[in-house]
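Much of our argument rests on the idea that a fold can be written as discrete symbols. Part of our work consisted of pairing the sequence of a single chain with a tokenised description of its backbone. We regard such an encoding as a compact summary of how the chain folds. The amino acid sequence and the backbone structure tokens for this protein are reproduced below.
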Amino acid sequence: MSNLNIDRNEVLRYLGYGQQHLGEQLDCLIDECIAEAKLLSDLRKTYRFFALTRDEKELCLANSTLVLAGQDISHHLAQAQSCVVMALTLGASIDQRIRYYEKVNLTKALILDVCASAAIEAAANMLCNQINTELRTKAQQLTSRFSPGYGDLSLETQKEVISVLGADRAIGINVTANYILVPRKSITAIAGVVDQTLAKPA
């Protein structure tokens, strides 16, 4: 069983609910799905730091084959001399349960899917907070996360991120021919390492 923190308010936000009354049945179903998501999740994570080198069109990560092409990621990491590349997954079990519910209970499938999305995002935020705690001893700080598929950073970058991290072997994340992560409830991201005086709010 995972010790993931799944924020109920985040689940409601993902579902599109504000302050409206949910009804007892839906209220209980959300709580049930949050508990089930925690039970099924097998959180695994890996990350590495890389020095950055730049040319006019792209960023290269030292001692790796990973190249970050695009104006958006270049702007995002403009103040960074290094970065951290990370990958996290909740594992295959929760994907399998969502697919099962899609056949027998679509409402539950949707809510469990949302709970899993909230869980993996919370896990990524927690990892960034942990890394920030280490960096602050060096007067450094992370930028916010930036993932393949954001802006003009190609989704194809997923494959190389998984490769340089060895995330397929280390935590069981693979990439489909369409550059989708498997298990689905997985995240890859890049965050810059900057001096605290230059850091912008995440």
